[in-house]
Each structure stands twice: as structure tokens, then as C-alpha cells.
Amino acid sequence: MKIEVWSDFVCPFCYIGKRRLEEAVKNFEYKEEVELVFRSFELDKDAKKKYDENINEIIAKKYDIPVEEAKSLNDQIVLQAKAVGLNYNFDGLIPTNTFDAHRLLQYAKTKGRANELEERILKAYFVESLDISNYEILAKLAFEVGLDSNEALKILEFNEYGEEVRKDEEKALKLKVSGVPYFVFDNKYAVSGAQPSEVFLEALQKVKKEELSSKLIEVESENKDNEASKGANCSDGKCRI
To answer: Between 20 and 30 A from 12 (CA), which of 85, 171, 191, 227?
Structure first.
């Protein structure tokens, strides 16, 4: 069962949603069958690599609200993160552009380390207050999840894998994804937002139930065909041409 996850590295609900999905998978009877595929999505393609304002000031400006209100909203997010075991450090966040981080994720896919890198970059941004647009830092994070840091640095410097990022975003556009996290279960069901783990578990169970029902119909159909064949061509335990 494939679960596609569209997310952005600077989206606090994407990390929270990831944890809630993982909890659901943990409690899913067929968890060994689940495959997570992380897709690239940029909340702001025009985001700068460097900002003079802190995250509270940026949010206040974006939504035209007082800075104090923005901080209060962010404090609530920090509490939600803590509830799933994540210690966000919003005071130290380094807002930046995520395109390069997504390019590195696409490279990690080719090496079978995308899920590990997704987790590592999210932690670097929200917990460790690292600049995830810095090539040296990204190469170091790649090394920590088993990738070649020199190759990662080369890929970043030569602007590789940008087309792969755009393909993920084009697919999201076709699905009319306007916000992340966004989860698609086996191309059948979609869950939008960092929903409670129970919602994810329900989606997992629904997809699996339909899969098992489909197999049952196939088996029953096959058995009926065999019975029809037996009635037409077989008797006394023998089949005749």
C-alpha cells in the first residue's frame, strides 16, 4: 500500500502530520505492507534564502496581523508538536527557501534514503534551528543518513534534480492540492492536513478492506468458472477434452 505525502520542510504541520501518520501505521495490522513516498511541495516558491525578520514577524506580515498574535499562534503550534514528541524551537527558526532541500530529497530517492532525509531535514529546521538552504549543511545532513556528502554537494552546486521537484508539484496541481501536508492512499483516498492518527488509521483500514474484498471477488469468480467447466466437461472425477 503506497501513501504519497506532499509536504514542505518549513511547514510545521507537515512534521506533526508525519508523526501522526507514523503512529497510525504503527497500529495498523498490515504495517509491513505500507510504503511512504514523500513528494516535494513549496509553500512559497518565491521565498528568499535570507530574511531580516524572525518567523513571528514574517507570519504577521503575511497574514496582516499583529506580531503578538502571530507569536501566540506559533506558540500553539509548538504545543501541538510537543504532544507528538517534537520539541520545536520557533525562536531560533531560520526562514528560508526550500527548493534546494527538495532537490536533495529527489536525489535521496534514487538512493533509497528519501524517508530518512525527509525526517533529518525537518528536525534540522524545526528542532535544531539550522539553515536548510545552506549547501554545506544540507550535504552534512545527507551524510548523516548514509548518502555521499561530496556527491550531494555536487548535485546542489550544479542545480540537479530541479525537474523532479517540479514534476511532484505539477502532480499536486493536478490533484488540486492547495496546502500541505496532503496524503494520498493508494490513489484512492486523500487526507488533507495534520489529522489525528485515528483518521489516518481509518484510511489505512478502508483501503486494505477494499483490497481484500477485491481479492475475494476475484477468487469467487475464479471458483465459479471452475465449477462451470466441471459441469460441462468433467464427470467421475475426470476431465475430457
So the answer is: 171
- Residues 180 and 36: their CA atoms lie apart, in Å, by 16
Cα separation of the two ends of the chain: 42
Is residue 61 within 8 A of residue 53, CB to CB? The reply is: yes
pLDDT for 103-143, tens place per residue? 999 999 999 999 999 999 999 999 999 999 999 999 999 99
Say what the pTM is.
0.88
Omega within 30 of 0 (cis) for the link into 181: yes
Q: What cell numbers appear for 69 in the block? A: 498574535
* Cα gap 233→238, rounded to integer Å: 9
User: Which residue(s) pair with 2 in the sheet?
Assistant: 35
d(CA 162, CA 95): 21
Tell the residue number behind the cell numbers 540537479, with chain if given: 160
Tell me, what's the pLDDT at 218? 54
Coil, strand or helix: which one is 109?
helix
- On whether the CB atoms of residues 185 and 1 are closer than 8 A, the answer is yes
Distance CA(201)–CA(21), nearest Å, equals: 8
